[in-house]
Amino acid sequence: MVRPSGLLNRKEEPVPLKSICVTLSIREFVAGVSATLNYENEEKFPLETFFVFPMDEDSAVYNFEAMVDGKIIKAELKDKKKAHSLYESAISHRRQAFLLEEDMCSRDVFCCNVGNLQPGSKVALTLKYVQELPLEVDGALRYVLPAVLNPRYCSSGSPVDSCLNMKTPIVPLDELPYAFSVTATVSSQHGIDRIQSNCPLRPTEYIGDKKTSAQISLADGHKFDRDVELLIYYSEVHTPSVAVELGNPENNPDGLMKDPSAMVCFYPNIPEAEPSAICGEFVFLMDCSGSMHCPISKQDKSQLRIEAAKETLILLLKSLPINCYFNIYRFGSSFEAFFPNSVKYSQDTMEEALKRVKLMRADLGGTEILTPLQIIYREPSIPGHPLQLFVFTDGEVTDTFSIIKEVRNHRLRHRCFSFGIGEGASTSLIKGIARVGGGTSEFITGKDRMQAKALSTLKRALQPAVEDVSVNWDLPRGLSARKLSPEQTVLYKGQRLIFYAHLTGTLPPAEGTGEVCLNYTLQGKSFENKVTFSLQPKLDDNFTIHRLAAKAFLQSMDMGFRETPAKFKKDVLKVSIDSGVISSHTAFIAVNKDLDKPVQGPLARRDIPRPMLLGATSVVTQCKRVDLGENYLVQLITLQNADGSWDLDESLARILGINLKDLQAALPVKDADPSSWATVLAVVWLHAKAKHQKCEWELLELKARIWINTNAGSIKKKLVKAAITFTNSSVNPGVFGI
């Protein structure tokens, strides 16, 4: 979404932005967005304005136009160098011109130039894009309208021509007087259960008995202190589907848009599998730059990013499997490794890591990820322990494409899981490194708990590998499918899989059908998911599927303006221009050729400022700092031993709220190992007192139960029964397998 960054320039001259209007249409799991910025030049001389705004990196921007004093000027998508040349030529000849492009250094930042805006002139700039909506763990579809664009840290080796380096001025949020509106229509044939948002909404209006459609809009008074997030829950479980869309052979006699395109959506039925004998090497790369001292959000009592990170690392350390290897790197302008090399997971190494985690501070300056990544990749692989990399960062960097390239170059030896922390984290960086590294990405904003999302991701990383992934088509004679999106090599339980194909040849008559089959193997067993679909393409004037297909292709081939290999650049340019979807090598250019005479008067530059988020200072002082010792769950988890057990001591007794002597006296079996009694009590406490946070402790609790089964043996049943009675809890003994 376009989010310009303010209304006043450095010298307090008025910048003519009057309003931002966003119209959103969500159908099933695809969003179509139209964002319009309305400007008026109230000054006495012509202006050239420049502004920067965030955009989710998955967005396929396919249309840009300007309405100038009632006349529409449609932009053309051209080679970026050619577009820049046309813009400069138009400006020098006193013509009105408009330029829209991706930033040179990141796919989630856009720049727009408006040249020669005449005194008294009104302009409405509109861009349109389509986007797949990601699926959350709880089944919700998540749409985010980016609002926060934080300053991006520029290292000494970063390129200097990022539009974020233009030093556009900033103003406080309460000095942004423009109007902002968002209206949305959500529709699903399965019905809508509910819609949630992190921002105040007007009452939702549902349409139809089965609530197949809903109208929502943002309440008045929104401030640009957070991204606008919608969580959409449909009434039925998501099901596999194939949609076929007509091409446009008349206007596109050649290329991607000519023939029908298909969008295939699978929800693979990956079964529960036995734990793998291969443990893995787990490396955690944690951002400790200065910005990590900010709260996760501006909501009241929001936890500081660095404190949430420390809690998360403790949970991850306690949840690691026995016999694995691990290491932790903290980074900023410099970096530090906890150990010279990854070490075997044991009581000693875990305790050493915990000591250092508790001392972690957001004190390492800027955000330089590339160097520690290179150091990690230089370490030799540990036989039988594939590398699993977890990256936690607020994502405020400019050398995004270089980092993605580094991860991509090592994709065959590891999986990369990424977490964007706080408002404004770079979607280009977070999603990009996970996509090329065969992992998954998560964003932690608002009331999200980093701990829950990190532990869910660790569960995925511990899954046995799904192998031999392939897609087979069964189509009528004379019709073939060519896959446009990259081959999927990694699948996770609960994950949605979307891919696109170009259908060429002769379509069958009415009622013709095709079939597509997803095949994979897991622990030596073969599985397949099939879906049958109609071969009667539907017309969509926006060519949504074609443009999403083009975006999927560009994400796999377009590695940035400087990083894309020459052998790929030709295909990137062709697909981008054929489909109208912007890439790092193309830009939209519009020139107003209807002016009777050149624009008169000296041209003044107006850089539209970004609003200043005050959370880095004032909000921090208002936030309650949660010390690890005050959080009983984290404290209990901190006490757990590497093998999954707990010791019967004063620290455990304090958390349980029971005198240690009473705990010792209540041991139901004479001469039994006190650790067995302590571990059973700890597990009962988790189920009784922290049930709502089970997703955060279930892996370490599993280790505890395995330890109990091995060490308590025949007395396990007595220990469990006595612990439930002694603590007066209603925990079901079945959680222990009794």
UniProtKB/TrEMBL annotation:
InterPro entries: VIT, VWF_A, vWFA_dom_sf
Gene behind the chain: VWA5A
Taxonomic path: Eukaryota, Metazoa, Chordata, Craniata, Vertebrata
Chain ranges of the VIT domain: 1-131
Name used for this protein in its record: von Willebrand factor A domain-containing protein 5A
Domain VWFA: from-to ranges: 281-462
Pfam families, A to Z: VIT, VWA_3
Domain of life: Eukaryota
Species assigned in the record: Suricata suricatta (Meerkat)
